[in-house]
Amino acid sequence: MRTLLTSLGASWLLASGLAGALELSSTDIEQNTLMDKRHEFQGFGCTGDNLSPQLSWSDAPEGTRAFALFAHDPDAPTGSGWWHWQVINIPADVTSLPRGAGDPARSLMPPASVQLNNDFGTTGFGGACTPIGRGEHRYRFTVHALSKPLELPDNASAAMVGYLVNAHSLESSTIEALYRRD
């Protein structure tokens, strides 16, 4: 009977999400809530501060050797969405990034981390920049716990980065924030 209760208790913990799943949080953005102008791109007609949000994560699974971080707008009118930020090889002992870490000039990323080109054609974070009057877009900030640091060819495409991250992702967590320009 004790084994059955222990098994049922463990099953409940896993099903309820209390068993220690990777969790992404932020002091700057919230699930299904509009981001503010600090996180809007500067360029392409947008006039924001282009600051990446503060992000923290916890409860990485055993075997995590590095993290990857993505910011993607699946609603961009491109047919494939828009990559706003791709970072790989964040060291396994790092559990947060400060606001503005996505600006390479600020040097706030941990050593060994690699920020890749976004779809604006720049390295690092490229903020939200929805077309005026086209409604809300979803911005998915996702952290992946990786089984190993990644090796990429120079100028790897976003698709290749996504493929390799997903191939080595042990677990992921997402905050889906919103943005619109009226």
TrEMBL record:
Superkingdom of origin organism: Bacteria
Keyword Signal carried by entry: yes
Keywords: Protein kinase inhibitor, Signal
Signal peptide extent: 1-21
Keyword Signal: yes
InterPro entries assigned: PEBP, YbhB_YbcL/LppC-like
GO molecular function: protein kinase inhibitor activity
CDD domains recorded: PEBP_bact_arch
Entry protein name: YbhB/YbcL family Raf kinase inhibitor-like protein
